Amino acid sequence: xxxxxVNHSAAPSGPFFREWEKExxxxxxxxxxxxxxxxxxxxxxxxxxxxxxxxxxxxxxSFAACDSDRRLSKLLDIPGFSTSAASFEVPLEMLAACHGRxxxxxxxxxxxxxxxxxAGADAAARKAAxxxxxxxxTSARHHHEDEEQDLFPALIESMAGADPVCIRELIDSLxxxxxxxxxxxxxxxxxxxxxxxxxxxxxSAADIDSFVDLYERHAAREEQELFPMSERLLGAEELDxxxxxxxxxxxxxxx
Length: 255
Known about the structure:
This protein is mainly alpha-helical. It is 71% helix and 0% strand. It folds into two domains: 8-51; 63-249, nmb1532 protein domain like (Four Helix Bundle (Hemerythrin (Met), subunit A), Up-down Bundle). The model is unreliable at 1-25 and 44-85 (pLDDT under 50).
């Protein structure tokens, strides 16, 4: 029986698994039994890769559970995904890491509402309100722009020549979420401005709850559907272009 030496460390992932399978099973001297075993190994590797892709971006952390950035970092410490390592060189991980920061800010928002109702707009409340305003006025806005101006068009382009109905439906739904989040933010921001000014105005529970709940559902859908799909469809060159655009959007020199 022939022997086939396989360099497992060089084994490709994702859609290239099947090409690797062909090379193994068609190699000279491979018996039908070995070919069958090889196919089974590749099938299992493909399944594991798919599960890792889903796990990588699927944070089960709820907004209410994020009591601090330090705790959030621990909760997001899952295989294949590192918030500390996320950078513009890996834009999908960077976008996923942004969800962690959004979760933290939404948790702060919920705690702030309770604090103001109990203790008024004291110094701690004013500082927290300022931080939440700053984040959603800048970083969260950039996050939406990263997706709408770079990631979404890249996904559509990746399916050129086809009719990517499912992708268009997903993108349209996520874009509608962005518009609704922006609408809700206007009301939430107005309350935060009052708190920042030292006014203990009553918060609109409905607006804040709707804002936080929608971000929860929106982020989960992106982590479960959008990011894994993007990882499968986009190549290194396109991801590099998205990363450069994200840097420029924030005024970071891409040189």
